[in-house]
Amino acid sequence: MLRVENLSKSFGGVAAMSDVSLDFRAGSLTAVIGPNGAGKTTFFNLISGAIRPDSGRVLLEGRDVAGLPATQVVGLGIGRAFQVAKLFTSLTVEQSLIGALQAQRHQSGHLWRRFPLPDYRGSAHEVMELLGLHTQADAQSGNLSHGDQKLLDIALALVLKPKVLLLDEPTAGMGPEERWKMIDTVHRLWTLGGLTLIFIEHDMDIVFKIAQSIRVLCYGKVLAQGSPDEIRDHPAVIEAYLGVPAESLDQPEAGGGPARDAH
Amino acid sequence: MSGASGQRISAPGSLGRDLALAGGALLVLLVLPLIFPSKVLLDYIIRVAAFGIFATSLNMLVGFGGMVSFGHGMFFGGGAYAFGLMMQKLGVSIPVAFAGGMVYCALLALVVGAICIRLKETFFSFLTLAFQMLLHSIIISWVSLTGGDQGLMGGIPRPPFLGINLANQLHLYSFSCVLLVASLLLMRHILQTPFGYTLRMVRDNPDRARFLGIDIARIRLTAFVMAGCFGGVGGILMSLFVSGAYPEFAYWSTSGEAVFMIMMGGIHLFLGPIVGAAVFMALNDVITRFTEYHGLALGITVLIFALVFRRGLTDFVAQLRGGARAKP
């Protein structure tokens, strides 16, 4: 479904991503992990068109989308949610989703009928039900709880029915309970089928519990890839996580604990 | 929050409600001279109409588009001069010159907007200001065409059309009221369409809008051209009222006054700027009658508005009402 070939990107001489080649099967659920600064978010930025790669290809169903602007990449079926929810704070949940839908159907410049166009209600409510946001339909996005903001962020990507969905730390900044609820939701989305889901996650408990396969990035390179069992025992991964000073293990929201427990 | 309540009022099917409100307002305005046959009052309302349209058009950018333009006066002046020159030099009818003035403003906005809209907040503000000052300089220095700092010489002819004689105060008053209501209705409609909501999305989070496939430059430019066009309508109306056009129309102080009106009235409700225009004009008229330091007095008033009402009169009232409703 999504294949990345020899992807490289450097920022002023610092190689943020060097010669990364990865393959994501259709319908797979993959976790991308790695220490801080490993290039995980850069990887998402390159795939989603936020930044242009220096070289390499990003193949979506065989079509090279590398270097296309984000506005086009989303139309081709790569949806993305963000580490810090990026929302339309003055719009309600329902309005935001309808706004996303009308953008996809090229109705953003529509000047004749009034907002919201009735045709989009159904899809918006479907996604709200799916993510448990339906009770918040009329709440202003900026007033939602942190957890609901993250859900709406995912909903904004999901409502466009992407082929590939990129989730950048869906559980970032959440308490333990909220975190598992979120991860259940993500897992449920995936089991509904039709979605190739790739997520970045720091909490190893979560990664090993739900991911089908794992890709480990380190200093902009692919360190390892395989099933959770293979990764758990992979010497290079153990070294990357444990063979470095303890500070780099510190995830302010997760604590270093889960990473170590996993081994 | 006021934004939310504003949107709730504008639930689906509200076009009918807007039309009813507009019709009612127009009726009241047209009956007004029969009850209060005061020339001063009619003049006041004509000026409020001109500046109200102008301030509301600026608020399309500031309040709904998140684009703080400091140069909106270029369309007020541009519209007035384009209209006046067409009337003087080409001898066309008022509707033709009116349309011509709007087209001129749209083209001006297209060129200026294409250059400015890609810039970040402060740079956008200052570049729009720079373009305005450029237009002002051209008006001042191209004396043979514009009359320089004397303004358009000889007045603007106002030949009757369709039985309307705009040299007659009552006709001009009625014309202004119809223009005001029609312009507000149209701008209101634009802001309630899918385009209007896309504009809010681009204001709230341009980055995210991009990731939904929205061409933010195009949305911003469209809004800029529309606002420029309506800004021109305000200028044309003013030039009809004073039967002339002056360089001050395109000076930065005109843009500043519109910003004051928006701040006074409130940027979050559609009718905020028109309320602001009415208050500003009334204050201006009263203060100039009593003191020559009207600039100082006006400045203090604006300061009080900024510090006490924070988000403008209409938002203040909406918040009070919201607070009262929240309590059992």
Give a brief outline of the structure.
The complex is a heterodimer of chains A (263) and B (328). By secondary structure, chain A is of the alpha/beta class.
Indicate the radius of gyration of chain A in whole angstroms.
19 Å
Task: Report the helical percentage of chain A.
Answer: 25-40%
**What is the number of helices of chain A?**
10
Order of helices and strands of chain A: EEEHEEHEHHHEHEHEEHHH
Task: Characterize the overall form of chain B.
Answer: globular
N-end to C-end Cα span of chain A: 31 Å
Unreliable spans of chain B: 1-13
Describe this entry's structure for a reader.
The complex is a heterodimer of chains A (263) and B (328). Chain A has 263 residues and is an alpha/beta fold. Chain A is built from 10 helices and 10 strands. Chain A has a 6-stranded mixed β-sheet with strand order 6-7-8-3-9-10, sandwiched between helices. In chain A, a hairpin with a 2-residue loop joins strand 4 (55-60) and strand 5 (63-64). In chain A, helix 3 packs across helix 4 (121-131) and helix 3 (93-104) packs parallel to helix 5 (146-158). The two termini of chain A are 31 Å apart. Chain B is mainly alpha-helical and 328 residues long. Chain B has one domain. Helix content of chain B is 77%, strand content 0%. Chain B is built from 15 helices and no strands. Chain B has helices at residues 2-9, 14-35, 39-62, 73-90, 94-116, 121-141, 143-146, 169-192, 194-204, 206-211, 216-242, 252-265, 272-290, 294-309, 313-326. In chain B, helix 3 (39-62) packs parallel to helix 8 (169-192), helix 4 packs antiparallel against helix 5 (94-116) and helix 4 crosses helix 11 (216-242). The longest helix of chain B has 27 residues, at 216-242. The radius of gyration of chain B is 20 Å and the shape is globular.
